[in-house]
């Protein structure tokens, strides 16, 4: 396991940890924790992948100095800069919570760099209209899971991905209902001013 600091696309210096060797796999943490939260999963995957665990800007040691820099486009640029730092022309990208939402936004924005998307859970930090639209989409998704099964729930969603992800995952509660976080996350470390 090796810690690193790299230069982001906007000159910021995000921190991260990498382990393993093989094709690239970037795992993004949820809002609140830091890069170490997906470490147990990363350790299991490190025998076949170069697993990169960045602190998303504003979390862990990647302190943000401007909350306005927390945009989906900037997160996607951060992923591209991270892939460049490791010399990875492509990688799978996955995440939980905020990291899952970044994955859903970055994969279609960078189809030449992201070869697969793994969404364990997601959350939104957008405006109220976007949050309401996502809440409606997630509620409809949950109804389809209950009434028709997980595959049927994904059927109307998967065709909208470019490229179509080769793997999507959900964390399931014991009840069988997918865990999808709907609450907005804090987007910035309070120490960053």
TrEMBL record:
This is AB hydrolase-1 domain-containing protein. Residues 1-23 are annotated as: Disordered. Residues 1-13 have a biased composition (Basic and acidic residues). It holds the Pfam family Abhydrolase_1. Residues 25-122 form the AB hydrolase-1 domain.
